[in-house]
Amino acid sequence: MLIVSDGRAVVEADLAAGRLVCPRCRSGVLGGWGCSRVREVRTGSGVRRLRPRRGRCRARSCRATHVLLPDVCLSRRRYAAAVIGAALLSVGVEGYRRAGERLGVPGETVRDWRRRLGSRAELIAAHFLRWARALDGSLDPPAAQRSPAADAVEAIGVCTRAASLLFGRQSPWSWVSALTAGGLLEINTSTPWPVPE
Ligand SMILES: [Zn+2]
């Protein structure tokens, strides 16, 4: 699985130009390889049906195929990254039931997302601060927040603002998906998060 732009034309252009590097061997580039199955993603404005493109590594020794998942998604989550993000942003501001009602998500699901955030908050904060510094060398470290989870959310905010300034505006949670290989909430992620060069 590889997180790519939500714009199909951008993905096709990236495939054609050999700009998508295989996440398995990390040296081959991906060519187009049909489409993946249809999946439904719950967004803030209703259910969206996606049929992600698939890519296949051109390296003869690899030939791995990967689902090219649009960055509006997180891996293995039926809710859009922005919906999950909104639930995480309200940590310490409103309870999980209230956040769930506001977002149209079962409260228990919001609680699960928040627990996952809390259980790896230090990792998440360190990861996004590392990216923030790579994107903007003059960046001041953010002030400490009330909790590790709030520190993690603050680091995500600092990093995604720096990314939007540098690369052009896009939803912060699309950056989050791209910068965690879709695995922000995965505890035992088999795909390591991308690191700055
Ligand atoms: Zn490969």
Indicate the topology:
Blueprint: E1 2-4, H1 8-16, E2 30-35, E3 39-43, E4 46-50, E5 53-57, E6 65-70, H2 81-89, H3 96-103, H4 107-119, H5 121-135, H6 148-167, H7 172-179
Parallel strand pairs: 1-6
Antiparallel strand pairs: 2-5, 3-4, 5-6
The protein binds zinc ion.
Zinc ion is lined by residues 22, 24-25, 28, 57, 59, 62, 64.
How is this structure best described in words?
The chain has 197 residues and is an alpha+beta fold. It is built from seven helices and six strands. The chain has a four-stranded mixed sheet with strand order 1-6-5-2, covered by helices on one side. Strands 3-4 form a two-stranded antiparallel ribbon. 35% of the residues are buried. The model has no long low-confidence stretch (mean pLDDT 94). The protein binds zinc ion. The site of zinc ion (ZN) has 8 residues, from loops.
Give the biggest beta sheet: 4 strands, mixed
By helix and strand content, what is the structural category?
Answer: alpha+beta
Give the overall shape: globular
Radius of gyration: 17 Å
Uncertain segments of ≥5 residues (pLDDT<50)? none
Strand content: 15-25%
| Strand element count | 6
- List bound small molecules: zinc ion
The first-to-last residue Cα distance is 21 Å
> How confident is the prediction overall: mean pLDDT?
94
Oligomer: single chain
Order of helices and strands: EHEEEEEHHHHHH
Strand order across the biggest sheet?
A: 1-6-5-2
The number of helical runs is 7
Helix-residue proportion: 40-55%
Quick gist of this model?
By secondary structure, the protein is of the alpha+beta class.
